[in-house]
TrEMBL record, chain A:
Domain ABC transporter residue range list: 20-263
Location(s) in or outside the cell: Cell membrane
Upper lineage: Bacteria, Pseudomonadati, Pseudomonadota, Alphaproteobacteria, Rhodospirillales
Protein's name according to its UniProt entry: Amino acid ABC transporter ATP-binding protein
Signal sequence interval, chain numbering: none
From TrEMBL, chain B:
Annotated InterPro entries: AA_ABC_transptr_permease_3TM, ArtM/GltK/GlnP/TcyL/YhdX-like, MetI-like, MetI-like_sf
Gene3D superfamilies for the chain: MetI-like (1.10.3720.10)
GO CC annotation terms, alphabetical: ATP-binding cassette (ABC) transporter complex
Alphabetical GO biological process terms: amino acid transport
The protein, known as: Amino acid ABC transporter permease
Organism: Azospirillum doebereinerae
Membrane topology listed for this record: Multi-pass membrane protein
Pfam family, one: BPD_transp_1
Domain (ABC transmembrane type-1) ranges: 17-205
Length: 272, 215
């Protein structure tokens, strides 16, 4: 992409520094502890799926990674940089401007798509390029068109979100994120709001991203996707990571009883 | 009933109606600006701004417009500010309208899902840009029917500014009927003119609403 020759602002991609490093992270809503002592490492170009029953804290953990949710204890680092707080103790929360810098390289895809209904698909994708990256309009629109083409929606560029199917809306939302050339994309149950027949097209786009080497953290109920695409799977239960490893280990070799029960329920619900 | 009286007075009445329309439009436009600023200030997270906005809204919604008008007209000179009737009139209309508009926008913002600004936040949008590009355009769409309603109410309320001597439609009707002793015909004509203007405003509002709905 020609307009983004901003190599000076991109940190060195040192392969030894993990993309995401979560150490001892905890979070409470009042008396309700939602995350306890979470450790998680996501290396560059890895796909890590977070699975688990609802209320287990997987979405909260995901949202802590780009600080949409404030974590209370421990630390999260993206490419070595501490998320949300200053390095110096006693730590204080980063200013909005500092948070924006941090979020520059982290994309997020939401369950409810969150496309802006007053803008066309093309405008949805171009908007952040103009407002955040400071690209001029013509370059942003040209780039946005290429991104829509990449998710197979070039012909829907001028459609408003209300005229698109859920699957198409989510693909536009993914185009909106990849247009910003993030180093990491967080997916918060990207297919949970979709009709079953529309899930496949979104998962396919995500598979393509993974194949291109994108680092992804995916909260999902799609066990097939987790089994086939993920490098690592983390099973969360009551705010803890109860099992972690390659999908084969987690799905077939783990002795964790809560995980067995969770998978059992999943298989029963998805079999005829 | 003598319709010739109406025909004779019509040029004056229409001229006065033009005054009514531009004063109301100016009042509504300034009211929009005030309303948006107050609404954003109240949502900004600052307690002081929220309190100040709350006092403003409850005063201008709670005190009759006629009293506000008279207060502005008679009180400001006491503290050394001499206000021409027209300025007092437009000031009172804008301030009253702003109070209602800020509440209209507050309600509309509640109708914008939280995920809308969250998506922008996650993409790194600065807060002012989230307001101007994401939240306010959507709040505006949601508010169009209420804003058109507000415009119609304000146009009718503008008849009150006749008491400070601004020669708008109501004041002009009073003047004419006081000289030709034909109040019924003149006020009937004035009423029909108000009706016609508001009919046109409602039609315009419906058009805007339809244009915005295409998204």
């Amino acid at each position: 992409m020609p307009a983004m020759t901003e190599t000076e602002t991109k940190p060195r991609l040192d392969p030894a520094v993990p993309m995401v490093s979560v150490r001892g992270v905890g979070k409470s809503f009042g008396a309700n502890v939602v995350l306890r002592d979470i450790d998680l490492t996501v290396n560059k170009s890895e796909v890590v799926c977070l699975i688990g029953p609802s209320g287990s804290g997987k979405s909260t953990l995901l949202r802590c990674i780009n600080f949409l949710e404030v974590y209370d204890r421990g630390e999260i680092r993206i490419e070595g940089k501490l998320v949300g707080y200053t390095e110096a103790a006693p730590r204080r929360q980063l200013s909005n401007r500092e948070l924006r810098d941090l979020r520059r390289n982290v994309g997020m895809v939401f369950q409810q798509f969150n496309l802006w209904p007053h803008m066309t698909a093309l405008e949805n994708v171009a908007e952040a390029l103009i407002q955040v990256r400071g690209m001029d309009k013509a370059a942003a629109v040209a780039h946005a068109r290429r991104m829509l083409d990449r998710v197979g929606l070039a012909e829907k560029a001028d459609s408003y979100p209300a005229r698109l199917s859920g699957g198409q809306q989510q693909r536009v939302a993914i185009a909106r994120v990849i247009a910003m050339e993030p180093h990491l994309i967080l997916f918060d149950e990207p297919t949970s709001a979709l009709d079953p027949e529309l899930v496949g097209e979104v998962l396919q786009v995500m598979r393509d991203l993974a194949a291109d080497g994108m680092t992804m953290v995916v909260v999902t109920h799609e066990m097939g996707f987790a089994a086939n695409v993920a490098d690592k799977v983390a099973f969360l239960d009551r705010g803890r990571i109860a099992a972690f490893g390659p999908p084969r280990e987690v799905f077939h070799e783990s002795g964790e009883p809560r995980l067995k029960q969770f998978l059992q329920t999943y298989h029963e619900r998805n079999s005829f | 009933m003598k319709f010739s009286v109406i025909i004779d007075a019509l040029p004056h009445l229409l001229g006065a109606a033009v005054t009514t329309v531009w004063i109301s439009l100016l009042g509504v436009m300034l009211g929009q600006v005030i309303g948006v600023l107050v609404c954003v200030a109240r949502q900004s997270g600052s307690r002081a701004a929220d309190m100040a906005g709350g006092v403003y809204v409850s005063f201008f919604r709670g005190v009759p417009l006629l009293i506000q008008l008279l207060l502005i007209y008679y009180m400001l000179p006491l503290i050394g500010i001499d206000v021409p009737p027209l300025v007092a009139a437009i000031g009172a209309l804008s301030l009253a309208s702003g109070a209602y508009v800020s509440e209209i926008y507050r309600g509309a913002l509640n109708g914008v899902p939280h995920g809308q600004s969250e998506a922008a936040l996650a993409l790194g949008f600065p807060a002012p840009t989230i307001w101007t590009r994401i939240l306010l355009p959507q709040a505006f769409r949601i508010s169009v029917p209420a804003l058109v309603n507000e415009l119609i109410l304000l146009l009718k309320a503008s008849s009150l500014i006749s008491v400070v001597g601004v020669a708008e439609l109501t004041r002009t009707s009073q003047t004419i009927s006081a000289s030709n002793y034909r109040p019924l015909e003149i006020y009937l004509a004035a009423g029909l003119i108000y009706l016609a203007i508001n009919g046109a405003l409602a039609a315009f509002g419906a058009l805007v609403e339809r244009r915005l709905q295409q998204g």
